[in-house]
Queue: 4 jobs
Job 1
Amino acid sequence: MKRILLGVIGSLLALLSLSKAQDMAVYECVEKVVMSEEIVFDEEVNCRHIYHEECMNSYVTKFKSHQRNECSDQYKKKCMIVYDPVPIKIPYQFCPKKDFCRNLTRLTVKEVPREMCSMSLGKKCEEKPMLLPTIEAEEKCLEVPKEVCAIVQSNPRPVQKPVIKTWCPSLDSNDIRDCGDVLTVVGSVMYQTGIHEFPIGPPESNRTIRMDCDEDGWSVIQSRGQFGNRENYFARPWLAFVNGFGVPGMEFWLGLENMHLITNSKNYSLKITLEDTDGIVDHAIYTEFKISEKDRYALYVNGYTGGLGGDSFSYHSGFSFSAVDRDTDAWPEGNCALRFRGAWWHGACHHGNLNSFNKNTNDTGSFADSIVWRDFRGYRHSLRSAKMAIKVLN
């Protein structure tokens, strides 16, 4: 049950790492500061004054004399005296007898004077002088001074100046075959480590491969490490090693056929990076590396330089690649790949094998059947990680 649980956890970790490893490097346009040659001059400003006429209209109010006929209404009153008959009662006494009288009235007419007037309308006109305003335009012109300056250049000379230019790297060329070519095209500032895709073989084949680009333009063709895989992840038949398997950036084998095509197109060097279980890292570098003889994929390696890791690879130069199901080694007593659990360029059998079981321990309890490098940590120390990377020999 415990083994099954560990296997499930390992598979989940592998899937998460696979998702991360499959992110391809993306190169975007950037602004770069470059030096550009420009011609500069000594400059002197010469100025002088010129005059030009500027005119403008102004408006003036003027008054002109004018005779205006003014008329007014006049009313004339005409009156006359008329007599109106007005009946009035006049009292009187009527005495028919002596000592007997009565007061009576009699009606009579009396003319009462009354004034009667009538109005007649008339006009009285007379001429009066007056001033009428008028607006007249007047143009006024002035001589206005103006300063005119000119820049006079002298003493031309070239100088280097920093300028900002937008630069977009193009990785579409069929000539870009490995990480070193990418570094050459985009430059060290723009270069990105990580997964890149490259054409391989003749252009008409339209084949591509994916490789992990390491620092300084190194193309990783083989890598081992702790990514949750089972310890026998590299225990595979001959055909798998011919075609390649794994995930770039994790445990990965580019494939003998691809290695053959690449290393026979240019002169490559090889860098092997080793890390033990204590985290100590060392390198072994070879100036010449090639996989030849397409049917047997023999190894050619030469020009070892390196650190404390030592040379545990030159011994294998000249031997064909040997797998568990295809024994091409020089050991008369059996199959080295089967005996030491890893396909490799075995002689009789190996001084170092980076394709064997991944045990990640400083004492395997067995001999030479894990990721070992004799001259680094011996045959019983299974290394934590190992990496093989190639780069064109400069």
Job 2
Amino acid sequence: MDINQSLIGDLISEGKTKQVYHLKNDGTFGTNDSLVYVKNKDNISAGDNSRNRRIMLGKGRITCETSSAIFGYLNAVGLDTAFIARDRNCDNGFVAKHCQMIPIELVIRRIAMGTYLKLNPDVSEGYRFLTPLVEIHIKDDANHDPLWSVDRLVGEQFVINGLSVDRDVIDRILKLAKLVYEILERVWHTIDYQLVDLKVEFGVVDNSIGDTKPRLVLADIIDNETWRLWPSGDKKQMVDKQIYREYSEGQVDDQVIDYVRTVFQNVSDLTQQLFSLEKKSKKCLKYLPKESIIILTADESHTTSSEDNHCLAQNLSKYLHNEYNISGITVQKIGDHCWQQLVDKLSQSYCQLIVTIGCIDNDNYSSKIATSVAIPVIDYCYDVNHNSLLDPKLLDKNLVNQIIKIMAINDQFIWSKIKLRQCFDSTLDDN
């Protein structure tokens, strides 16, 4: 998105890593919310900003690249975040909803490291939690962001932009923090990187415009300073800010800064590839080239409902593409005359799933496919008199759920959307 610089107003706040400005909402941002413009700075430091405070040229741009890719992906999945868009006119700036931040940090851990070990000396470094552990830390640099319990946080009775941070809100925050971690962990696993832990923050959207209720959103930044990331799960190969924290005061010189910048840039490049919604650009992943799903309907020689079946198949294809970003869906009518062509096509494709619609299996096509090519098959029959089934909005949820569960095995975006639904809606069985 190209941001008109004349829309950027006064400075609201400035921290060690970013500046936040008012931004006039001229109606082009797709939201009625109050907006801010965030500029990421080139500062880098260690230990609550107390050690090795340096300027690393390009860091603001790298942070913006990394965080924009992560938040763009989470927005597409359906998570409510403050992020709106990166500014193409400024390499270190992005637009976000104006939030009042809840003064806590959530640290989600898969592997015991860092402050957890100091607080739990009986736990060995590298201990792996079966379920990610979520910690609440109050933001207090002077006291090194101490750990708080849920009860203590409830007792503070914070009210943020009209939202009471009560036990229900805290429970939602904890669930969201864990969900964000699990989604990012899943994507990084596709290239054998272990997301060791992650820090996230939440805010409440300013609801001064209109009559909307206060909204809890994931906010701030997610980048190479807010996680630990180990290729092949090997601490010795770490590619996160910990490599900078390892240097003692006075050890950092220009050569170290150049090295850290290179590592950060490499992680940013990977992040943009992994979390891009343009699957063609995901060269490092085994995503779904060519056909991903083939939907088969019987031709006119087999059923009088051929056109209805084909219409349903087309609507299903559009829905799966629009809702789950599934590309490469082929809809094809099938009859005896083209059976061998279909088998030849399947044997040369990367198809993940076959869906047959309209009792096509009366001709044993499903069993023929199963014996010819190792591809899952879903047979779907329905009463063609129910014309409502031809409306994309009224597609059979059971059919859609079956399809997306199978596709989620190899597609992290679909898996992420399912995980979000499971977290709050419970409309899908847990996998």
Job 3
Amino acid sequence: MAELESVRKSVEKTCEPHEFTVDSMPTRFIEPVVMQGLKVHRVQRGLILCSFTVPPRLLNTGNTLHGGATATLVDILGSAVIYTMGSLATGVSVEISVSYLDAAHLGFVGVAPMVATGPVALEVVAFPVTTTFSKDYNEKAGRKPSQRRHFPTERNTEEIEIESKALRVGRAIAVASVELRSIKTGKIIAQGRHTKYLTLQSKM
């Protein structure tokens, strides 16, 4: 069936222009890809407070922060806050849950379709601001005009606040909460909970 084939193609990312770049990345590259640019403002017992400007590399098809990136932030920061409680290890994940309550936007909804002849400003459809568009990036990726990526300028990106709290750190189980909020509006973007099994220290 045609619709099943389209599903397969959307999931199986082969023969893509970026395939070589992805395969050449070093091992354990997921954390720096997601965490690059995160700023830590406070670390105390049971609490980590950060801010993060949503970068274009973490967008989904709707031009908002990808849900997988949000889950990764919950994973990493939920583990990190366990260390603030004096734990020597953060153990292994038992469960991660995320409630997505709002979108972390980049300051626009869409752009008017056009073919770029260089780095140009594009008019935003929904808001009276502009975004920029890299001709070099799209040409290297072999994108057709209808497939080209539109990147927001830094001044239009949304900054979010991330608060990670240790809810419980026992001998065997630790539970942390991670909340993402829009700094501009105060709206909660996502709430996550990370449960970890702490490997018991040997008494020998």
Job 4
Amino acid sequence: MEVIRVTVDQMVDEIFCSIVHVAAGYRSNDLRDWIETNNSMTLAGGPTNPVIESVPGVLRQEKGGAYTPSVVSIGPVHRGKLTSPEAIEESVKESTYMSSLFQRTGSNGGQTITKEGCEETLRPMANTLKACYPAVGQPEEDIVSIVTIDCCFIIELLYRHYTIQQRSDPILRDHLKSYAVRRDLLLLENQVPFSALEELFNLTVERFHPVEPTTAANRSQRRRPNISLTQCVLSFFGDMMGLKDGDISKKGGGSPIHILHLLHMCYKPWRIEHELGGGGVVIPRDQGHPCSYKPTAAQLKTAGVHLRKSERGNLFDLAFRSPFVINCRSGKLEIPRFSVSNITESFLRNLIAFEHCCPWVGSYFTSHALLIDILIDSVEDVKLFEEAKIIQNDLGSRDSVVQIFNGICRNADPHHFYYNKLFNTMEDFCTPQRAEMEIVKRNCAGNLWIKLSVFAASMLFFLTLLQTVYAMLSYHHPRKA
């Protein structure tokens, strides 16, 4: 059985190749200088000057509401622009959340942190914070103040959720409002720098949260709180794509720019072992835009390829399995299970916009969304996904799933589509003869008399063949009298 899988090595190679491709035309000894002077990437493939990117106009014009906050603005970009009656006022952030966080800092008898103390902590970062919002013309002091309030709001909200204090929180106890806040905190333009969040998290939570127990190993070291900002973020947002427990966790690869980038880092594959000797093969890296072969799930079924839920946990780990005897058995396209909810479209569109603005992070979500867009074109395709238990449809309507994925990548083609090899292999498998065989199999499966006729004809053919062989053997080797 041949197995075609998209490996992480392929994806990592593509990210580096995208950097080299952009630098085409430069002298080889100038490549390092070109990359180091580019303000959006380094030789390691990360940001030198993190920026809260603006959604490109070509993406916003498709569905602007997917990138605009509805109940809470974070950072200076959308501050004061919310018109919904459910919007959280800036005064509520200060009086309900920031003041509560400060009160906690003095709960153990220590000095209570103040807003001025937090601003003083962030003031050395003032130039960096202002540079994070190039489209905003506010003074540094105003940006420091805004970031301080929003960071404290996020930290207190995350801490209340992490320590199970939902009943006393006006956001967490309201399921719909909590859902809306989660959505808004994952918008590309509605972010604060993760470095500022970490500074204030360490300044505040470290003062009141229980610390690590003393052991022989850490007796001489400063004990840290047995909680981290990443833990709080992942606890609050959970698994946005409905994967199995334990399939989303912080991977290596540097510090995130913001919360949306952190979740991107958690979902993207970090290491997948090659199945050497186990049927798996390492496929060459794909190049360029998606191939011309773009079948829907229903068309694949007609051509002899059936969908099957992959038991592999990573969202991007797809595989195509072809049988040994091609004309006798169907191929299997294995896709990891994921869920579709009211927040899915906004989440995916902002991740796609993030990958569009920051090519060095790869085209993971763009490639996956485009693959699903290709496979799903009608409610019949969604039905096949549901029957294979690949999609958990929390929307209730199959037509809603079609509307989400159709055109989700319009104007946002991936820098490198990671599933070209997968489609090319399926194209080679889906021959006209295979389609005809599938038609015969379906007709036989639905009619008992056809099954009996095929069985009788097969037996007659076998017996005729056996008789012919026996006659030939008798002719060439006659029995002796």
